[in-house]
Amino acid sequence: MAPPTSSAVTLRINGEKHTLPVDHRTTLLDALREQLDLTGTKKGCDQGQCGACTVLLDGRRAVSCLQLAVAAEGREITTIEGVADGERLHPVQQAFLDLDGYQCGYCTPGQICSALAVIEEHAAGWPSAVTADVRPEAGVPALTADEIRERMSGNLCRCGAYVSIVQAVARAAGAAGAPVVPRQGTGPGDAGAPADGEAAA
Ligand code: FES
Ligand code: FES
């Protein structure tokens, strides 16, 4: 007898359990969008290169187009639908809204999910590829624009809203108590973090 090609899986998404039948080849992205109607998570490239499908798995970033739904069983899955607290936006969402961290908005759910994890990773002292001093005694690196760009580099924006995205992440991180670096200058291409007052807003 041929082995089964589908199974019933129970996925815990945004704090709720969903039991659904899935073909073993179904990605988490397709299960979310096509079977559970959670269409906030977007499909861009469908091959792990654009970040539009980013969700959190146990608090860590994951591209859901490269994750099989059956492999996500037992994990805590957070999608953009689970980020706000009821009607109250999460500070990261509010910062994207206030600072125009988007144009068409297609990449935005993935950008916001990624930013949530970036802020956590940074606060936990994780270095990035551009962190100058990675010795443990150096402590948490300042969240410069370069740090944010590097840490968010897995999320592409075809509208090129990067300047505002960097500012929104900086503001949200500053509100969460991260040491951010004030913006230097205002010229084109300057993606520095907002000034101190802004970051603390
Ligand atoms: S749709 Fe998953 S990375 Fe592009
Ligand atoms: S806002 Fe349009 S792709 Fe990013």
Automatic annotation (TrEMBL):
Amino acid composition bias (Low complexity), ranges on this chain: 191-201
Pfam families in UniProt: Fer2 (PF00111), Fer2_2 (PF01799)
Molecular function GO terms recorded: 2 iron, 2 sulfur cluster binding; metal ion binding; oxidoreductase activity, acting on the aldehyde or oxo group of donors
Domain of life: Bacteria
Biological pathway: Alkaloid degradation; nicotine degradation
Alphabetical UniProt keywords: 2Fe-2S, Iron, Iron-sulfur, Metal-binding, Oxidoreductase
Region ranges (Disordered): 178-201
Domain 2Fe-2S ferredoxin-type: 7-83
PANTHER family xrefs: OXIDOREDUCTASE WITH IRON-SULFUR SUBUNIT, OXIDOREDUCTASE, IRON-SULPHUR BINDING SUBUNIT-RELATED-RELATED
Identification of the protein by name: 2Fe-2S iron-sulfur cluster binding domain-containing protein
Source organism per UniProt: Streptomyces sioyaensis
